[in-house]
Design a protein that fits this description.
The protein has ten helices and 19 strands. A hairpin with a 5-residue loop joins strand 15 and strand 16. By secondary structure, the chain is an alpha/beta fold. The relative contact order is 0.14.
Length: 381
């Protein structure tokens, strides 16, 4: 590790964690969170939902299979930094094009390794998420603690505007090098006579969501987060998709208003921040979680059948299930802490889930939700 200089991680509560720098040699601040996925570090770091957050990986060995452009979930690394226990000195995978340290250095992302991440995660679970600072150039403790305390608070922060596309575009990646959906369309279910037109709100959208909708028979038009309901309906969509994204959902008042106007006009499917925005548009309330759900191993129970799905998560805010109006039904519940994981508003032709059925990274237990969206649009035609 001689090529990695000494580095220091400081939390806003004054605790300090020593390590060594990798990636960009510099410093960064953000909200410290942890992810329990065993693989998928590249997909996690390029997920726009991590904008403004420093990710602690609970998997101790990170970087062993390198990075490859096909695994990027967006056009840049959005995470504010990376914290790992043991950075692999060897890359061993036939798909690898670049090591993780070189990948992050090229993109200007600060990382710290040789950190006791097990103790760090226990600390976050006990004290809750908070802001932090990392430096591999100036490890003065008092200065870094002050930097952490001066970082912007996630509460009330609208980050969707910072990660959304600047202009609308058509997704035309045929995904011929990507996996086919694990739950292909069933012949006994209604099928569209022609490809369905979906308008997808980009609040921080991940590429695999677009790949899956394309593979299921949709032509997707991606629009910026600030697109109005009238502009969406002018595109004559068969359905509207609300993507994942970062920040406080309650701060996205413009998106909440647009979704409120769209509800009932066209079928609608939301994921993660999209679930929260749809819920707020229906009259529910959101709240900040102590340390959130982030990882590919979260058990979610389907309320009507009792089935349990292992799912991929990334959220620090959630919806109070008791705040929904009477015409909205909670459909999924997290078995770890009973957090609301999904809902349906049948009268509005709308449903949403808090977790990530596109599974990048993560298990594929919930792929059928994309088929459900297809069926809803087909039945409404």
């Amino acid at each position: 590790m001689t090529q990695h200089p000494p580095a220091l991680l400081a939390l806003a509560d004054g605790t300090l964690w020593e390590g060594r720098g990798f990636g960009k040699i510099g410093e960064t601040t953000g909200e410290i969170v942890f992810n329990t996925s065993l693989t998928g570090y590249q997909e996690i770091l390029t997920d726009p939902s991590y904008h403004g957050q420093v990710v602690t990986f609970t998997m101790p060995h990170i970087g062993n299979y390198g990075t490859t452009p096909e695994d990027d979930e967006s056009d840049q690394v959005w995470s504010a930094g990376a914290i790992v226990r043991s950075l692999s000195p060897v890359v061993s995978n036939w798909r690898a094009r670049q090591s993780l340290p070189d990948y992050l250095a090229e993109r200007g992302i600060v990382g710290i390794t040789e950190v006791d991440t097990r103790a760090l995660v226990r600390h976050i679970r006990t004290k809750g998420v908070q802001n932090c600072a990392i430096s591999s150039v100036n490890t003065d403790p008092d200065r870094l603690i002050a930097m952490a305390r001066g970082a912007r608070d996630m509460n009330g922060l609208d980050l969707a505007k910072e990660v959304t596309c600047s202009d609308a575009y058509d997704w035309d990646d045929a995904a011929n090098w990507w996996q086919a959906p694990k739950s292909p369309p069933r012949p006994d279910l209604p099928q569209p006579a022609e490809r369905l037109k979906v308008v997808a709100y980009d609040f921080g959208i991940k590429r695999n969501m677009l790949r899956l909708m394309t593979a299921y028979g949709c032509d997707v038009r991606v629009v910026p987060a600030t697109t109005t309901a009238a502009e969406v309906m002018a595109l004559n969509p068969d359905g509207v998709f609300l993507s994942n994204g970062p920040g406080d959902p309650a701060a996205c008042d413009y998106a909440i208003e647009s979704v409120r106007e769209l509800l009932g006009q066209t079928p609608m499917f939301g994921i993660c921040l999209g679930h929260q925005i749809m819920s707020l548009a229906l009259g529910a309330d959101s709240f900040k979680m102590k340390f959130g759900h982030r990882g590919g191993n979260q058990p979610v129970q389907v309320s009507d059948s009792g089935a349990v799905q292992i799912s991929s998560h990334n959220h620090g805010f959630a919806i109070d299930p008791n705040s929904y109006p009477d015409d909205v039904t909670v459909t999924h519940v997290n078995l770890n802490d009973n957090v609301c994981e999904g809902m349906v508003a049948p009268d509005k032709m709308a449903f949403a889930v808090q977790y990530h059925p596109e599974s990048s990274p993560g298990p594929h237990d919930s792929d059928e939700l994309f088929q459900r969206f297809i069926n809803l649009m087909t039945e409404n035609q």
